[in-house]
From TrEMBL:
<dbReference type="Pfam" id="PF08545">
    <property type="entry name" value="ACP_syn_III"/>
</dbReference>
<comment type="pathway">
    <text>Lipid metabolism; fatty acid biosynthesis.</text>
</comment>
<keyword id="KW-0275">Fatty acid biosynthesis</keyword>
<keyword id="KW-0808">Transferase</keyword>
<dbReference type="InterPro" id="IPR016039">
    <property type="entry name" value="Thiolase-like"/>
</dbReference>
<keyword id="KW-0444">Lipid biosynthesis</keyword>
<feature type="active site">
    <location>
        <position position="286"/>
    </location>
</feature>
<keyword id="KW-0012">Acyltransferase</keyword>
<keyword id="KW-0276">Fatty acid metabolism</keyword>
<protein>
    <recommendedName>
        <fullName>Beta-ketoacyl-[acyl-carrier-protein] synthase III</fullName>
        <ecNumber>2.3.1.180</ecNumber>
    </recommendedName>
</protein>
<dbReference type="InterPro" id="IPR013751">
    <property type="entry name" value="ACP_syn_III_N"/>
</dbReference>
<feature type="active site">
    <location>
        <position position="114"/>
    </location>
</feature>
<dbReference type="Pfam" id="PF08541">
    <property type="entry name" value="ACP_syn_III_C"/>
</dbReference>
<keyword id="KW-0443">Lipid metabolism</keyword>
<dbReference type="InterPro" id="IPR013747">
    <property type="entry name" value="ACP_syn_III_C"/>
</dbReference>
<comment type="subunit">
    <text>Homodimer.</text>
</comment>
<feature type="domain" description="Beta-ketoacyl-[acyl-carrier-protein] synthase III C-terminal">
    <location>
        <begin position="244"/>
        <end position="329"/>
    </location>
</feature>
Length: 341
């Protein structure tokens, strides 16, 4: 029998601390109007001192398990998409699994920056459909506030911290919630467009101290904008054609929440109305690997995602990487809003 990976649970978590555009304007040479006009972002949330990516991942994972009605010992795989792990070594996923009551589960991290959640879904789905595992918990979690230059108004305006998660179970390819396919890709020639230059083996093996700015996240905004629109649009269209949605397309696109202008441009490329493009970044900023599952949870809570809709997910991130997947939206049980920790 053909098997598919089916989304059966969904949850999110955000830090309690809210940073508004007005808060940033009091610290930096910026303004609410400048930030909104360029990004569409009004607020973002950041972790408190002493908190880490795993804290958000555990909270989101717990809510996804509750949404699915799944016990911890039913899950034997945890895949964590993150570019801000608790430590450079080891991976953060095993600690998340242990804290969720799954100490024997297979667990690993996926580092594909803002495409991480789609890559993690693809990895977990492959293991489920192969019969390697029974159920999987896929989490996207990032705390980019820990790698941003405090004096950089551009990156601090864009990024926020958060986590989102889904539970996957094996099921029938024709049922709602089944992931219908993937389109994944990368282009290492653009690896310098989104990067933290210092801290890895290349910089350390060279010896000496790296410039202070190399320890912070850096992004070439204009080039990234163009690449993001092109890559997400092409990936989404390739998948639409492959799964037989050509001619009718998706009812709703939940894209990586990078920038409002990028979201609108992707929608235009796919021939969709603004109402068909999910927007969540206005309240949380770019939460990197968490952005797609957090946007799903927000849309589910608001009722803009309804059972039976054709939903396409697409992301673009550092590497460069991109990826898309699609599903018929299922009926899910979900708590009223993402947890605040």
């Amino acid at each position: 029998m053909n098997r598919a990976a089916v989304i059966c649970g969904l949850g999110g978590a955000l830090p309690e601390t809210l940073v508004s555009n007005a808060d940033l304007a009091r610290e930096l040479d910026t303004s609410d109007e400048w930030i909104r006009s360029r990004t569409g972002i009004e607020n973002r949330r950041v972790i408190a001192p002493g908190q880490a990516t795993s804290d958000l991942a555990v909270a989101a994972g717990s809510r996804a398990l509750a949404s699915a009605g799944a016990a911890a010992d039913d899950v034997d795989l945890v895949v964590l998409a993150t570019s801000t792990p608790d430590h450079p070594c080891p991976a953060t996923a095993p600690a998340v699994a242990q804290r969720l009551g799954m100490p024997g589960a297979a667990a690993f991290d996926v580092a594909a920056v803002c495409t991480g959640f789609v890559y993690a879904l693809a990895a977990a789905a492959a293991m489920l459909t192969a019969g390697t595992v029974r159920q999987a918990l896929v989490i996207g979690a990032d705390t980019f506030s820990t790698i941003l230059d405090p004096a950089d108004r551009t990156t601090r305006a864009v990024f926020g911290d958060g986590a989102g998660a889904v539970v996957l179970r094996p099921g029938d390819p024709a049922e709602p919630g089944a992931l219908l396919g993937f389109d994944l890709g990368s282009d290492g020639a653009g690896s310098d467009l989104i990067t933290v230059r210092a801290g890895g083996s290349r910089q350390r093996s060279a010896g000496g101290d790296a410039p202070a700015e190399d320890h912070w996240f850096a992004m070439q905004g204009r080039a990234v904008f163009a690449e993001a629109v092109l890559s997400m649009s092409k990936s989404a269209q390739h998948l639409i054609d492959r799964i037989g949605w050509a001619g009718r397309g998706p009812d709703r696109v939940v894209a990586h929440q990078a920038n409002l202008r990028i979201l609108r441009a992707v929608g235009e490329q796919l021939g969709l109305s603004e109402e068909q493009i999910t927007v969540h970044l206005d309240q949380v900023g770019n939460t990197v690997a968490a952005s797609i599952p957090l946007a799903l949870a927000d849309a589910q809570n608001k009722g803009t995602l309804t059972p039976g809709q054709r939903v396409l997910l697409t992301g673009f991130g550092g590497g460069l990487t991109w990826g898309s997947t699609a599903l018929i939206w299922p009926s899910l049980h979900l708590a009223p809003a993402p947890a605040h920790i």
